[in-house]
Amino acid sequence: MVTAISLLTVERDKVNDVAEQLADMKGVSEVYSVAGRYDLAVIIRVKDNDDLAELVTEHIRSVPGIIKSETLIAFRVYSRHDLESMFAIGME
Length: 92
Description:
Number of strands: 4
Low-confidence stretches: none
Order of helices and strands: EHEEHEH
Radius of gyration: 15 Å
Distance between the termini: 31 Å
Helix content: 25-40%
Mean pLDDT: 91
Number of helices: 3
Strand order of the largest sheet: 2-3-1-4
Structural class: alpha+beta
Strand content: 25-35%
CATH class: Alpha Beta
CATH topology: Alpha-Beta Plaits
Shape: globular
């Protein structure tokens, strides 16, 4: 499983439309509207790098209204939620 985060700059009045289109794509697990330098943060979870390349270059980048994108590939996850669930086994 490959996880990536795609940060998007979107035309001013198209943020909601772009977010809804992205959320319907296979491989996109979440889309967040965010404050700051970017307008949307897209969480991607796909089987392999080929699927990631196809999703980003052929599908996400073809959505009208996207001005610029930057995609980050995740190497490792650090999550308090995951750690708490591991240590909570049998603690009920």
